[in-house]
Amino acid sequence: MSETVLSVEDVRKDFPITRGVLERLRGRPQRAVHALNGVSLEVKRGETLGIVGESGCGKSTLARCLVRLLDLDGGRIVHEGTDVSGLTGPDRRAFNRRVQMIFQDPYSSLNPRMSVRQILTEAMRVHDMRPAAEIPARIEELLDLVRLPAGSADKRPHEFSGGQRQRIGIARALCVEPEVLVADELVSALDVSVQAQVVNLLLELQERLHLTVVFVAHDLRLVRHISHRVAVMYLGKVVEVAEAEELFERPRHPYTQALLHAAPSLDPAQRTRAVAARGELPSPIDLPSGCLFRTRCPHAFDRCVVEEPALTPRGTGHVAACHIDAPVFEAS
Amino acid sequence: MSESAQPEAADAARRSVRLPRPGHLPLPFIGGALILGLSVFVAAFPGLFAPYDPLAFDYNAVLQGPSAAHPFGTDNFGRDVLSRVIHAYTIDMQIAIFATIFPFVFGTAVGALVGYAGGIAETIFGRVVDAVITFPFLVLVIAIVSVLGPGLGNMYIAVGLVGWVFYARITAAEVRVQKRLDYADAGRAMGYTHARIIFRHLLPNAITPAIVYWMTDMALAILLGSSLGYLGLGAQPPAAEWGVQIAEAKNFMSTAWWMGVFPGLAIVVTGLGFSLLGDGLAELLRTRR
């Protein structure tokens, strides 16, 4: 449980904004959306690591960087001692066999012209997973594993429901027998009634296949339910990491507290007036100086403007990036 | 178990091929396929249908109107117009295919690569296409044929030099859309090569508009072949070709309407066949999500 599988070290990712010809001629500097601003994180073997944050906080970008879908603009990602940030060709293929991704949109993530059999066969052939003769049997096994009805193999994606398509996506990721699954908003596009089924399937598979799961989501309750550890992201940075219960019971970063406050609760005793974050998310193009959260933080003081807080320990396995190290903030 | 294995396998095979039953085919597709199937058959075996030799002069039967002996009449050399229209199928169907097959294959391949690459490659490509498209198509083709010399072979070269840009532009636009979808990313996350992602994943989803345009283009190629034949730059007299026939008929338009009308009708019917087939294919190849 403690061995690190993937280690994210000060990863940066910018998306340049296209300038018009006129702007270029006028010498307007190249600007960029700063999606990841030095993310550091460790993924431990066998765990489910939840990554939460508002939309636009960079959690999907981080997920895509983890599977090498995006090139980094700084920092590195280390997989079992090897820097994978620059891998190409066969090396990258070998890495991706071990670290796979499940996508958010069950509709656009499957090639509409390929049957389930074709999708799975192609992946297994490219990665040389099984001799050709054993592939059909393996496909039945995989479909059974993700609980798709027998006879699904020769259907094409449009014949399935959203939940079933997500299972196909899981089967596709699993057919190369990876160790790490990165699930980007696995169920956010599904009906609530189906969400639980798919999530439970993932948990069950994780146990059976000893998978490491990076679960990116904005649904706090869901993340609390399934994660061992949770990382909170804000504006392209990790601001707090802790064991799931610890994080939800004793959040130490003001942003995490605001996030938890903002989540509606069904229990009247739990209901509080949201002290929460003030104002809007700052533009990821022009980031605030110092602490990225200071513009919305109810506790910000002068040091926050000039100095960016580092992730510092707040107890066992609990880190937070805040200059204030008090057990509980006054909700003023 | 062993009894049910057979039909199941057959069922699976049918499903993996996914040919709709004839009753489920779109009506335009059936119509277009019938017209073009017949046209191709006539083009392959014109001798079976033509009552006379298309090149044989008969000075005893010059400029005769439609009759039992000559259903489409005769021309100014006494040649049977029906036989000439039938034999022209051979040349005009060839024009439809040979003038468009290279632009289709080359254009879609270039379009797929450029659309996938994006960036500077696409910008440069866009300017090249703009430059080609700025010239009126027919004028450009006529200019190239004038340089190379008249004849069908040179016409194919001229059309090929110009025609591929349309396919490339259509395909590039479609690939640009497809490559942003998650299934393309899923392929990348599987570590697939760019070639595999472009040609096995993106192109099958992006090629439908190009195929539909191809059908229209074949009809346009026949019209272009006829135009060039009319101008004396395509098929050369005395060969039977619809455009050549219409060109020959222009001097007799008021006295022998049948010389030009029947080749013209053949062009219309064939063009209709291609248009219907194009519509039908668009329906048939529509992506279901």
Automatic annotation (TrEMBL), chain A:
Keywords: ATP-binding, Nucleotide-binding, Transport. The keyword Cytoplasm does not apply. Residues 6-260 form the ABC transporter domain. One of its GO terms (cellular component) is plasma membrane. The keyword Nucleotide-binding applies. Its main location: membrane. It is a peripheral membrane protein. GO terms for biological process: peptide transport; transmembrane transport. It is found in: Cell inner membrane. SUPFAM superfamilies: P-loop containing nucleoside triphosphate hydrolases. One of its GO terms (molecular function) is ATP binding. Pfam families: ABC_tran, oligo_HPY. Belongs to the ABC transporter superfamily. NCBIfam families: oligo_HPY. PANTHER family: D,D-DIPEPTIDE TRANSPORT ATP-BINDING PROTEIN DDPF-RELATED, TRANSPORT ATP-BINDING PROTEIN. This is Peptide/nickel transport system ATP-binding protein/oligopeptide transport system ATP-binding protein. The lineage of its organism: Bacteria, Pseudomonadati, Pseudomonadota, Alphaproteobacteria, Rhodobacterales.
From TrEMBL, chain B:
Keywords: Cell membrane, Membrane, Peptide transport, Protein transport, Transmembrane, Transmembrane helix, Transport. GO terms for biological process: peptide transport; protein transport; transmembrane transport. Residues 89-278 form the ABC transmembrane type-1 domain. It is a multi-pass membrane protein. Pfam families: BPD_transp_1 (PF00528). The keyword RNA-binding does not apply. Belongs to the binding-protein-dependent transport system permease family. This is Peptide/nickel transport system permease protein. It comes from Wenxinia saemankumensis.
